[in-house]
Amino acid sequence: MKPSLRITEVFYSLQGETSRLGLPTVFVRLTGCPLRCGYCDSAYAFHGGKTMGFDEILADIARHGAKTVCVTGGEPLAQKHSLAFLTALCDAGYDVSLETSGALPINDVDPRVSRILDIKTPGSGELAKMRWENLDVVTAKDEIKFVLCDRADYEWARDLVRERKVNDLAPVLFSPVWETLPPADLAAWVLEDRLPVRMQVQLHKILWGEKPGV
After folding, report:
1. In the β-sheet with 50-53, what is the strand arrangement from edge to edge?
2. Is the pLDDT of residue 214 over 80?
3. What is the per-residue pLDDT across 30-61, written as a single tens digit (0 to 9) for each?
């Protein structure tokens, strides 16, 4: 039997986050996630979806004509064939990033993939599911993302970055929860503390709002 994945959506948009901000990108959103973060903006991907073979997904990606692909979820690594799919994307010549929650091991991800690794904060409600060993395998090709709910989350993340020198492992991203933490507040804190991180806002939500497929 040929490998397949459960897919919620494949769509073409601008990358709204990370160092690839603004790049035309094909997003492949896999179905399912073992986490339930309080601020989740893709809960519609927890269930449902369509079973698709690799060839079908690759054909859907190719019709958009972009060379940048982001595999996201849900939690992509929760599906057993996701690692093979990431390799297939790289073999096809795409510049591939993976958005992953930090709750599953990332060490077997194809080294050509840029792993965008979430660090779950206390405000997410899922801190206990973090696999801290993932920090031992990230490289400068990867990015480490903190999604922050409030000042307490910020201080927790700031202290972690300083104590574990997280910014020496990979570029660090601080992102405010949409319509919860005012971006200007986060910007002021980062500047006040002279923290060596990249603050980001979600460009796609600024442009089109919070909805599927953008």
Report:
1. 50-53, 4-14, 24-30, 68-72, 95-100, 114-119, 143-148, 172-176, 198-199
2. no
3. 999 999 999 988 899 999 999 999 999 999 99
Euclidean distance between CA atoms 98 and 68, whole angstroms: 11
pTM of the model: 0.94
Structure tokens at 193: 């503390």
Predicted local distance difference test score (pLDDT) of residue 185 = 98
CA nearest 102: which of 68, 136, 70, 151? 136
How far is 112 from 60, CA to CA, in rounded Å?
Answer: 22
